[in-house]
Each structure stands twice: as C-alpha cells, then as structure tokens.
Amino acid sequence: MIYGNQSLLLYNTFHIAADCSYFSEIRSEDEFIALQKEPLYQSNEKLIVGGGSNLLFTKDFNGLVIRNSISGREVVKEDEQYVWVKAGAGEVWHDFVLWCIAHNYGGLENLSLIPGRVGASPMQNIGAYGVEIKDVFEELEALDMKSGEKTVFTKEACEFGYRESVFKGKFKNKYLITSVTFKLSKHPVFNTTYGAIEKELEVMGVKELSIKAISDAVIRIRSSKLPDPAEIGNAGSFFKNPEIPAVQYEKLKEEFPAVVAYPLANGNVKLAAGWLIEQAGWKGYRKGDAGVHKKQALVLVNYDKAKGNEIYALSTEVLESVKAKFGVYLEREVNIC
C-alpha cells in the first residue's frame, strides 16, 4: 500500500522533521514485486530506508520512500567450524547480533549496539573495535529496482572499502537488499585489542573471555560515550576517519605530537577524526538545536528541533576548521538526502 504525504520524523534517528510525497513499507520480496507494478512507483524517484540511522534529510523528499522491513533469521549451512546465518534486511541490527551471541555464533560481538538494520550493514561495510562486516560477510540477495530480478552479490562483487561498497557507489539506488548471509564461527577468535575493550573487561571483572563478555564490554563503552538516538537525535559517527600518506602523518606529528593515529597495511595512516574535531575546538559546541556531542566530537546531534540543513551547515564548518588547522580533509559518513 502507498500512502501520500508522509512525515519521516519517525524514520530517521536524527529526528529531522521532513516529509515525503509517498511512503510504503514492504515486509517481503513479493510485496516489493507488487509495489513495482504500481504507477506511483514507476513515476516517482525512490529512496530505500531501514532504520534511518545513517541519513540526514536536508529537505523534503519529492518521491516515494520505501521502508524495508523484511524480517527472518535462519541457519542455511554449517560445518564443524562455521555456521552460515541468513537474516532479512529489515531485521534490527543489534537484536540480530544478540541473537547470534545467544546461539554462540562468533564474529559480530564487536559490532554490538550499532544502530540500524541488517540491510544497511553491507552497504556501509559497518565496523567497530577492529571488526568490519567484510570480515564475516558471505553474500547478499538483492532485487533490481527496475526489473525486480534477483541478484546474489558475493564479497568480491560488493567491493567493500572503508565504510563503502558498490551500493553507495555505482549501484546506489539500483537495488533493494532483501537478505544478508554471514559466515560466523563456532569456535570464535576473540578480538579485544582495539580501543578500550581490554580495559573495560578488567573493570567488569571478567575472568573467562567469551563473545557475550566482549559484547557486554562494547555495549558499556558505546553507551558511556555515544548518545542514544531515542534521547538525542543523531546518526552515530558523522565523519569517516581520514587516511593519509605516512609522509604527511610524520609532518603532522611534528606539529601535533599527541595526534591519534593507526598504521594501515597499505603503508598509509588512519587518523582519529574525533580527535581532530575536538582539537579544533568543536567538542560540546551548540548553535540553536544543532551541536557536536559533548562526549564524542565525531557525533553531530539534534537536541530538539534542528533542521537538516542546520546540521549540514555545522558539518561544513567542522570540515573547513579541521582542514585549516591540520591540512586534513574529513569526509561525511552519513548519507545526505
């Protein structure tokens, strides 16, 4: 069913008051195929949303917004080492992670408490605390937005990069992801070296390491420094951590010895965008209802009734400020609509 003139306030975690001309929610592949036959589908620009956790609406959307709510979880294959779990694109990501942990399927524990839905995970190649989706990804199924034809995308076909995939590039708005299959471990290798996980595990008094303990530690860390979208509008990390050549990093370090950075396998260095933004003086900044979070400078927030273009304007000021101070250009991670 297609509804006219729908508010999108409840469908984006920034809590931006924007409207769309038409709105439809689909819960199965068959519903999407039926929707494609509707004249309003064929005559309008289309936007797929899930949890709306990586979107910033800067204006009303003059077209059809389709909310992907395809659910389902199933084990499709397993052997002595691994289990392959297929999840509907509309599954809430954190709920799915907790379900995997409850079944002792390892690999997603470091990605606990990330907002959004399963379908967005390969689009963004989401990552946290040393783990990215590409590390556990097997394949995804997607329907062509024009023909409805189903295509299976392998890891190679997705062309994963840092918070990137073909679905943010050459195939943007061309496919509706319906399911994602993950290859998870029955005998997980624990990843605790990134960030403050080991320290948090000590604070928790964990004696025996497990994927549940790691998940609990990640949840505690994220909850302590990241705002809950249910309380303060935000889309998590607004900017990507920039990657620069090692030569540029060495020059930067001479001027700023405390710069936070991580060496990469390709010889480049990844900088902590949050540190750059904080050092540029933006942490805790507020103008009207648009601001930079007081605990994590990487997160832009809507305290109440900020407009999307106000958040976007603030992000531009942050970009220009960091560029002027450090000679480093930050890239927005959030999708701008």
Give a quick set of tags describing it.
337 residues; Uridine Diphospho-n-acetylenolpyruvylglucosamine Reductase, domain 3; Uridine Diphospho-n-acetylenolpyruvylglucosamine Reductase, domain 1; five-stranded antiparallel sheet; 10 helices
TL;DR of this structure?
It is built from ten helices and 20 strands. With 337 residues, it is an alpha+beta fold. The strands form six sheets. Strands 6-7-12-10-11 form a five-stranded antiparallel β-sheet.
Q: Provide the spatial order of strands within the biggest beta sheet.
A: 6-7-12-10-11
Question: What value does the average pLDDT take?
Answer: 93
Category by helix and strand content: alpha+beta
The number of domains is 3
Q: Please state the second-level CATH architecture of the largest domain.
A: 2-Layer Sandwich
Low-confidence stretches: none
Form type: globular
Strand content: 25-35%
Distance between the termini: 24 Å
**Secondary structure: helix percent:** 25-40%
CATH fold-level name of the largest domain: Uridine Diphospho-n-acetylenolpyruvylglucosamine Reductase, domain 3
User: At the first level of CATH, what is the class of the largest domain?
Assistant: Alpha Beta
What about the largest sheet? 5 strands, antiparallel
**In DSSP terms, counting alpha (H) and pi (I) runs of 4 or more, how many helices?**
10
Number of E-state strands: 20
Rg, Å, rounded: 20 Å
